[in-house]
Amino acid sequence: MGGFRNENNNIAFENGLFNLIIVHLCQCSHKMMETCKATGNELYNHEDKITNRLVANHLNFNDLRLRFIPQSPETFVPNGDNYKGRCDIRVVSDDWFRNQNDYYLVECKRIDGGDYLNGQFVSEGISRFVVSPPKYPSYHKRSIMFGYVVQAIDIPDNTVKIDQLQGKLLVGVLSGKFLLVSNESTEFYHYRCTYQSDAIDSIELAHLFYDFSGVIQHNT
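Above: the chain sequence. Below: its structure as tokens.
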């Protein structure tokens, strides 16, 4: 997303843009939660509905020259005329019109502290980026997993459980450890983890967890 003749400048630009996307996701999540509290219009306990509201009401209202596109078809299969996967959010900039491989992906999953959703975060989330053949591309060798926390839990403790699960569920992938990058009080946590395999070489996933538990309709 954007090019400079000096490769060091390119790397610095991409690092800054990737971090900017993460900050924007955090800020918009906070705004959405505050709006839910102020209006009483709580979130359905449903991954796609949370994503849709976040994109439609918050993410695309920005002056960052970024566009957040929901339900993005990924990895076209010519022999079958279909796509391998459909990612929750594609993030594009102006440069996407010059190079349509130049974008970031955000895969979203609900988290409630239970084994089932933790397993889904790994087997139906992380795996789509790293298990051969990957369903989702990582053009810049980076992508984002976004965990919507829908029950009040200890997020760092649950992250340890997910970290342990990925060692069991990601067949053929060498996964690193979840490393804490930052956290905003107890609402938002940002981890990073590296993954290696013959299919992907090496990529980094940012793992974001935002606590929406206080504005979830638990009777739906």
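Confidence is low (pLDDT under 50) at residues 1-13.
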